Amino acid sequence: MKRIVLPDEFNENAKKIYTMRIRGAGKIARFAAETIKELAESYNEDDLEELKKLLMEGARALLNTRPTAISLRNAIRLTLQGSSGKTVNEFKESVKSEADKFIKNSLKAVETIGIYGSKRIEDSDTLLTHCNSSASLAVILQAHKDGKKIRTFATETRPWNQGYLTAKELAKNGVDVTLIVDSAVRYIIEDEDIKSVFVGADTVCSNGAVINKIGTSQIALAAHEARIPFYVCAEIYKFSPESLKGELVKIEERDVSEIVNPKKFPNVRFRNPVFDATPAEYIDAIITEKGVIAPHAAYDLIEKEFREEREWSL
């Protein structure tokens, strides 16, 4: 049996996701779809079954890079489960078409979420956001485009400081933005009279719980205690059909070297979880491209959108 070998360029792309050179759930999803398309295009033989095995091997390799991100899994699912063809060329064209469709729909979804979410923002509101979410950024930027005089506070988001990217993007577009340390959130909510919080999502579960960047659940608790709305901005492909079947989301933990040099702390243990879970009761609404829903409506949305969901074995 011929051994399947993934091209060096593919392995380099997978490494970009694992090492967080490509980060953010939406960007990871679009990059994964593009990477699968390029893998199909790189195949130069005339064995359809071998091509399918190559794509499945590539899919597994990509899934192992970020096990928590359902966006990556669904990007691959939506690209591959719709692919078909009786010849190698037909199958390659189908993969290309499905990948391009996913990327186009993903970008359109962000734009639509921005329009829906902006309606939840009043003129002169002061907002808070966490990490670097293209969907929550779209909401804030749309409110700014709508002429609303808003101010935004962005957390630095340790340990990778994704909040730096958020602050730079908002400032580049003329939004009044202030960068704060993660632990300043509760103080800033009160001191700056924050009106609402907007965050993204890596995974939305069927019970309405949201898996997102570490620290999100603490911000949700602070917002709940301060009685201000906490909104999650999430494209449909970030909802988890696996959660309907009872599967739990595996919280990814990364190397401790991202937060400290362990050699400087003998006999000290470290943990570096990347995500946490925010319960549905601390989320006021989830803003999607299909509309603004209550967290507990996630079950029905997943059932509807993934009713034809099946194992994407080729």
Q: Please outline the major beta sheet.
A: 7 strands, mixed
Structural class: alpha/beta
Strand order of the largest sheet: 3-2-1-4-7-9-10
Shape: globular
CATH architecture of the largest domain: 3-Layer(aba) Sandwich
Provide the number of structural domains: 2
Secondary-structure element pattern, one letter each: HHHHHEHEHEHEEEHEEEEH
The percentage of residues in β strands lies in: 5-15%
Number of strands: 10
N/C terminus separation: 18 Å
CATH-defined superfamily of the largest domain = Translation initiation factor eif-2b, domain 2
Radius of gyration: 20 Å
- Give the uncertain stretches in residue-range form: none
In DSSP terms (H or I, runs of 4 or more residues), the helix count works out at 10
* CATH class descriptor of the largest domain: Alpha Beta
Helix share, percent:
40-55%
CATH topology of the largest domain: Rossmann fold
The averaged pLDDT comes out at 94
What does this structure look like?
With 314 residues, this protein is of the alpha/beta class. It folds into 2 domains: 8-110, translation initiation factor eif-2b, domain 1 (Four Helix Bundle (Hemerythrin (Met), subunit A)), CATH 1.20.120.420; 111-305, Translation initiation factor eif-2b, domain 2 (Rossmann fold, 3-Layer(aba) Sandwich), CATH 3.40.50. The chain is 43% helix and 12% strand. The chain has helices at 8-18, 25-42, 48-63, 70-80, 88-118, 134-145, 162-172, 185-191, 216-226, 298-305, and strands at residues 126-129, 151-155, 176-180, 196-199, 203-204, 210-213, 230-233, 275-278, 285-288, 291-293. β9 and β10 form a beta hairpin. It starts with 7 loop residues before the first helix and ends in a 9-residue tail after the last helix.
